[in-house]
Amino acid sequence: MMKLKMRKTLKALAVILILLAFFNYLGFLAPLQNLAVRGLEPLASRLHLSSASWRAYSEASRKQADLGLEVQNLQKQVDDLTAANAKLQEAASENQKLRAYFQFFGEHKFNQKLAHVVFQENYLDASRNGQNIIVDRGTQDGVIPGLAVVNESGILVGKVLEAKETSARVCLLSSNSCKFAAAIQNQERTIGVTEGDLGLAIKVNFIPLTEKVSLEDLVVTSGLEKSIPVGLVIGRVNQINNNPNDIWQNITLKSPVNFDNLGIVSILLP
Amino acid sequence: MAKYIKLAALGVIGLLLLIVQLSLVNALPFVWRQSDLVLVFLLLTLFLFGFKPAIWLAVGLGFFADTLDFGYFGLQLLSLPAVIILADIWLVNWFTNRSVYSFLALTLAATIFHNLIYYSLLYLSRFWDDSTFFFFTGNFWAGLGLQIISNSLLLFLFFALAGWNSLRFRPVFLER
Description:
The structure holds 2 protein chains of 2 kinds.
Chain A (H helix, E strand, L loop, with lengths): L1 H25 L3 H34 L3 H36 L8 E10 L12 E3 L12 E3 L5 E8 L4 E5 L6 E6 L6 E7 L3 E5 L12 E4 L11 E8 L10 E4 L9 E6 L1
Antiparallel strand pairs in A: 1-2, 1-12, 2-5, 3-4, 3-12, 4-5, 6-7, 6-9, 7-8, 8-11, 9-10, 10-11
Chain B lengths: L1 H23 L12 H13 L1 H18 L6 H19 L6 H26 L12 H28 L4 H4 L3
Helix pairs in contact in B: 1-2, 1-3, 2-3, 2-4, 2-5, 3-4, 4-5, 5-6
């Protein structure tokens, strides 16, 4: 009797699963799915923010010992940046005059869309850190795959991989699946490709040994990718390990973005 | 009528746990984010309320999980009911001694099989993307080990707390 009941249940289950898959393929379930996503997103974004606080707290506890040294380094960086900023302002002023003279476009005005981070993926077979995030903007807001995602300072965070109607999947700069065409701001303006390294660092690939790259060189987007504006900051060179027998240099960047603490991001629309 | 109200209430709890899993738990540091709240909830439902509520909840939660996810539709919709069916077979045929120890063993087996089924389907869906087979990925086994431990701890905690509040759970907890 029990076996007969179980068989009936399993048959009903199989029919329902097939119908669900069929209706999903035809798109009939899309309104229900969008409603579910829209309804759950406010709660999800709040929960994600609280986990970011938890991670920030545990990170801060671990790093307390190094804070003193880091403050000293940061002070030196501030001083260097102040000097560089003064030079840049001069250059910017000159640039503005030249642009006006040659009738170039004014400042780049990006078309942006703010998005909350609502979910984080957690695939066991992916790297431990830098897993993809899900944001609450989708094709209804003009989001398409390949768009750049930045933080509040305009620094590159990642790229849109896929977009549904009301949500999009974004890979983080530090994840292996996230690659960008980059340019190093050295004398030769060397072009390379950035790629995440197990969620912990960012590598720059395809830089020949003959190119001169220095520590602290700024790396930005090269503009060679469709939909990714030129000049978005990716990070600074913090490690160069060259082997004379290699073809390419082994360069690592450090991004100023804290990928563990992303609550709101901005998607740069075309 | 009471049956449907109970199922609806369990559905709401399951959905909330799914959201907590995706938005809060998944964003925690590696060691803390390996619990599978949805699987634990379904196993508890199976254990406490029987096969039918558990299987329908598995279908519903699998549907919502696939809706919110960006993978191929049907991965959780297939893997969650499949593991509940397996768990029910084990519960009826092997883990008949309804103690917390047999339930922990059931959780261990269910966690392993759920991940094997889910990641096999995921690998098949990404077959043409040149991805590494999960079986040979160190992160998978490390994460699976942590998930087994955290799922077991969650269940142990549930039974410990439930045992204080209700005599109903005590024979299940301390059957000698």
